[in-house]
Amino acid sequence: MMLVMTIIGPARAVAGRWLLLEWRTVDHATGATLGHPFGEDASGGLVYTPAGWMHGQLSAQRRPLMPTSDPLGGSESERAAAYSGYVAYWGRYQIDQDRIVHRVESSLFPGWVGGTQIRYFTLADDLLTLRTPPIEVAGDIVVNELRWQRQEPW
């Protein structure tokens, strides 16, 4: 028997295909921009389905090229350099008030598999902003903020 989840309310509102406008790191206390982890021209795609599935990918634009067409080829250091500018994961999601809870089923970063990624969100028309919970990075308390523009509604 296949379980089909019907999404209503805020979850229905986020369903669709989204294009990354900006990924920035901000100071948690002041909101000041501290940097752009993959550069100011990072690219990304995000999909939320009405049935509760999601997948997202983020990429730096100027990642090192590999000397091979085989994605498993090249040296370990070449693969590490190429894949360090990429984030990808997929799984189920649910809306919990002002949070989207991503339940990670697979990820380029194996440490996320089986866990959850919490994103606080705001939605205004076709602009979706996702924010991570505050984390400590090099002694600073920061939040990653990702702004997305809707490309297709569901």
Describe this structure in words.
- The protein is mostly beta strands and 154 residues long.
- Helix content is 8%, strand content 51%.
- The chain is built from two helices and ten strands; from the N terminus they run αββββαββββββ.
- The chain has helices spanning 10-14, 76-83, and strands spanning 16-27, 33-35, 43-48, 53-59, 86-96, 99-107, 116-124, 127-131, 135-137, 140-153.
- The chain has an eight-stranded antiparallel barrel.
- The two termini are 25 Å apart.
- Mean pLDDT is 91; it is low at 1-8.
Radius of gyration: 17 Å
Strand order of the largest sheet: 1-3-4-5-6-7-8-10
The proportion of residues forming helix, as a percent range, comes to: under 10%
Shape verdict: globular
Number of strands: 10
| Strand coverage percent | over 45%
How are helices and strands ordered from N to C?
HEEEEHEEEEEE
Characterize the main sheet. Answer: 8 strands, antiparallel, barrel
Q: Which class do the helix and strand fractions yield? A: mainly beta
